[in-house]
Amino acid sequence: MVETLNLNIILTPPPADAPPETLASVSLQDGAHGLSYSGDLLQNPLEEGEGERLRWYLEEYWKWPYEQFRERGEEVEELLPELGRRMYQAVFGSAGAQRLVQPWNLQPAKQRQISIVCDMPRVLSLPWELLHDEQGFLALRSQHPVSIVRRLSQRELPALPTTFEPPLRILLVTARPDDAGFVDPRGIARELLEAVSEQVETGTIALEFLRPPTLPALRERLSNSRLPAVHVLHFDGHGAFGQEPVSQDGLRLKRIAEFAWPSSMPARALWVRWTMSSVVWPRA
To answer: Which residues of the chain fall short of a pLDDT of 50?
Structure first.
């Protein structure tokens, strides 16, 4: 198995006396080299109106990328590297952060990953996939791209089961903001249902819908030891990227049974790829 060099960016609530524009306290961990650093504060790297411009580019521009909209879209595209550089400086700009990240940066030939570890939706919804170190976007390099992963802190995870007994249980989650309208989970997951229909009939696979599809319900389902264990999580997300208040009923998941974050980003976003640590059924 190829070893992944993981760099954790741990973002926690800022001190009470921090300036109002401060989003989080920053801690960095490079487990492969046994390095850690903390003490920096994350300021909002997006200026007023930029979040809305990104939302429009990702959610609306593709519908009509012509005429005056094309000019507006090209302006947003020119902005993306600048946003990425600001994101990078926001977490790696200090001398202490540079000293920690340097050994990790000096191994570009190895598989590398940055994990955004946070429980705050506003911080998780920042466009982390735009991280840019002056040489280019980390996630979009033609050679040795860096994986960007979001996840919640893992303090609430139950112990993983040590044995497996069929059937393989798949938990289907179709989440949406309150104002997104009705989304039929059967229609959204039709491809999955068709692919495993024979296994469901023979009893080797069991399908279960999470109702309601909320973060509290997910936590309750996964922590309930009286119910059958969930082996695979299939997630379909809906919503929009913007500065509007975050719905606490929406879900945004990144890996199996580990990460969930309230709605504030679109499943179709350029920088969002739903993945799982074992079996993957993405819909982006």
So the answer is: 157, 240-284
The neighbouring-strand residues paired with 132 are 137
> Could you tell me if 132 and 139 are in contact, meaning their C-beta atoms sit under 8 angstroms apart?
no
31 and 8 Cβ atoms separated by less than 8 Å: yes
The angle at the Cα of 281, spanning 60 to 272, to the nearest 5 degrees, equals 35
Distance, in Å, from the CA atom of 121 to the CA atom of 5, rounded to the nearest integer, reads 26
The continuous run of DSSP H or E covering 22 comes out as strand 22-30
Domains of the chain by residue range: 4-151, 155-284
- Give the angle subtended at the CA of 257 by the CAs of 255 and 259, to the nearest 5°: 55
Looking up tokens 């990460």, which residue turns up?
A: 259
- Peptide bond preceding 103 in cis form (omega within 30 of 0): no
pLDDT tens-digit map of 41-65: 999 999 999 999 998 998 889 888 8
Query: What residue has token string 């979001």?
Result: 150
Query: Cβ(171)–Cβ(234) under 8 Å?
Result: yes
What percentage of the chain's residues is helix, strand, coil (to nearest 5)?
Answer: 30, 20, 45
Q: Count of H helices and E strands in the chain?
A: 8, 8
Measure the CA–CA gap between 155 and 118, rounded to whole angstroms: 12
Between CA 249 and CA 140 the distance in angstroms is: 32
pLDDT in tens, 150-167: 988 876 545 555 577 889
- Residue 44 CB partners (closer than 8 Å, separation 6+): 21, 23
Structural tokens at position 7: 């760099």
User: Which amino acid is it at 137?
Assistant: F
**Backbone φ, ψ for residue 174 (5° rounding):** -115, 105
Provide the whole-model pTM: 0.62
| Type and span of the H or E element at 125 | none
Nearest C-alpha neighbor of 7 from the set 131, 123, 143, 183:
131
